[in-house]
Amino acid sequence: MPDKITALLLGDVFGTPGVRALFTRLASLRKDHKADIVIVNGENASEGLGITEEIAEQLFSLGVDVITSGNHIWHRREIVKLLDSDRPIIRPANYPPGTPGKGLVVVNVKSTPVAVINLQGRQDMRSIDCPFRTGKEIARKLQAQTKVILTDFHAESVGEKESLAFHLDGQISALIGTHTHIQTADEKIMPQGCAYITDMGMCGPDDSVIGSSKEISVQRSLSQMPLKMEVSDTSAVIQGVKVVIDVKTGKATKIERISERSLV
Ligand SMILES: [Fe+2]
Questions:
Q1: Can you give the CATH number for the domain in which 59 is found?
Q2: At a CB cut-off of 8 Å and minimum separation 6, what does 112 contact?
Q3: Which of 52, 146, 168, 202 could in theory staple to 12 by disulfide, Cβ–Cβ 3.0 to 4.6 A?
Q4: Known active-site residue 72
């Protein structure tokens, strides 16, 4: 069993620019950061909304170990088949019972089981089941299997994100926020060893409004009409975090922000 696991988590992959950036940079990022596991949020990979099986398999072939998601995962209905398969692609665990797919996956990394949980917030989002109770219960059950537990919390509210990290601190190794696509500068390790950041950002077009066309975004605000969003076709940012976890204790020893511009 290794002493530590280094996890590379990358923010929401947004459209073709995001996938393209990972295509060119993921292998070297993995090597540069000596990552043992790579986790990306893929809920915006298909034209900004949802993900297809083809794109998911492309991400796996680039070296992604686990794909997490969020509220937009349902946009491309054909992904349900993959969500229901044993491929390591997950949706938030706190959707009601009977929802397709799974909210947790355990993968083997250097002979160590590493659990990845996906949860979704409820403030300014759909009122699905409670992420606090669901997260606590999953983390409790996982203790017998592994202490290395990473959580993608897909949520809008900063307060809800910090609260959940505090609630699960001591039971999980990291709670990493996604959904807003804007990387925050508040990475920290909580008192009982849970690495935390409010939002790790995105892998998507840098000249954009959270990934989408700036012009259409402005027009939407000016006109108040539900204009169809388009992915901004520019070069991309690649954003996320690197987290180092002590395998014996499951506590994080380091969290470091990653933010770079891709050349394509
Ligand atoms: Fe997203």
A1: 3.60.21.10
A2: 1, 2, 5, 146, 148, 247
A3: 202
A4: yes
pLDDT in tens, 167-207: 999 999 999 999 999 999 999 999 999 999 999 999 999 99
Nearest to 12 by CA among 85, 30, 34, 55: 55
Alpha carbon of 167 to ligand 1 centroid (Å) = 24
End-to-end Cα, the chain, rounded Å: 39
- The CA-based angle 159-176-93, given to 5 degrees, is 90
**Residue ranges with strand state E in the chain:** 4-10, 12-13, 37-41, 66-68, 104-109, 112-120, 149-154, 174-178, 188-189, 195-197, 202-205, 236-246, 252-261
Compute, in angstroms, the gap from residue 109 CA to the centroid of ligand 1: 26
Query: Is the Cβ–Cβ distance between 67 and 41 less than 8 Å?
Result: yes
Rounded Cα distance between 80 and 136, Å, is 26
Catalytic residue among 72, 154, 167, 179: 72
pTM of the entire structure?
Answer: 0.97
pLDDT tens-digit map of 110-130: 999 999 999 999 999 999 999
Q: What are phi and psi of 132, to 5 degrees?
A: -70, -50
CB of 6 closer than 8 Å to CB of 36: yes
Number of helices (H) and strands (E) in the chain: give both, helices first: 6, 13
Structural domain harbouring 238: 4-261
Rounded to whole angstroms, how far apart are CA atoms 253 and 190?
A: 10
Q: From the CA of 179, how far away is ligand 1's center (Å)?
A: 4
How many domains, the chain?
A: 1
Count the neighbouring beta carbons within 10 Å of the beta carbon of residue 84: 12
Distance 176 CA to ligand 1 centre (A): 13
